[in-house]
Write a structure and sequence with these properties.
This protein has about 140 residues and is mainly α. It has one domain. Helices cover about 70% and strands about 0% of the residues. It is built from four helices and no strands. The two termini are about 15 Å apart. The mean pLDDT is about 95.
Length: about 140
């Protein structure tokens, strides 16, 4: 296994790989929020259905009917429920982003991930000190 701090790579390449990795990590966070939006919106619709039934049971049939017709099951954006938004994001953006990250790593660092962080660990740890070990694929 090679030293993941990749002493064979120039600093500019490592910095660019690090920035791409950071960018992908931000996209991963956005994706998580999108899935949270998907789940919360679905939960809201189920709660809305409960409210509709409670209005109906309380004798407010017209309001219940209007809510059920106009809001229950409504698209959250044009022509889409949230699962379709998530699927479109995954298919058109997230997958492409991940593929470019993989390509950059394959082309420039033999597929190694987190080269910038591996260098940072080597620079910031106290060599030979307990709990500061180099760890897998880093040299001591």
């Amino acid at each position: 296994m090679t030293d993941r701090s990749r002493p064979d790579l120039d600093d500019d390449t490592v910095a660019a790989l690090g920035k791409l990795s950071e960018s992908l990590e931000t996209v991963e966070q956005a994706r998580g929020l999108l899935y949270g939006f998907h789940q919360l919106t679905g939960k809201a619709d189920l709660l809305l259905q409960d409210a509709v039934q409670q209005f109906r049971d309380a004798g407010h049939a017209e309001l219940a009917d209007d809510l059920e017709r106009d809001l229950v099951g409504r698209n959250v954006i044009a022509d889409r429920w949230t699962f379709q938004v998530v699927e479109d994001f995954d298919a058109s953006y997230w997958t492409t982003f991940r593929a470019f990250d993989q390509r950059a790593r394959d082309d420039l660092s033999d597929g190694d991930r987190h080269v910038l962080e591996a260098r940072m660990k080597q620079r910031e740890r106290t060599a030979g000190h307990p709990r500061h070990e180099a760890g897998p694929a880093l040299s001591d």
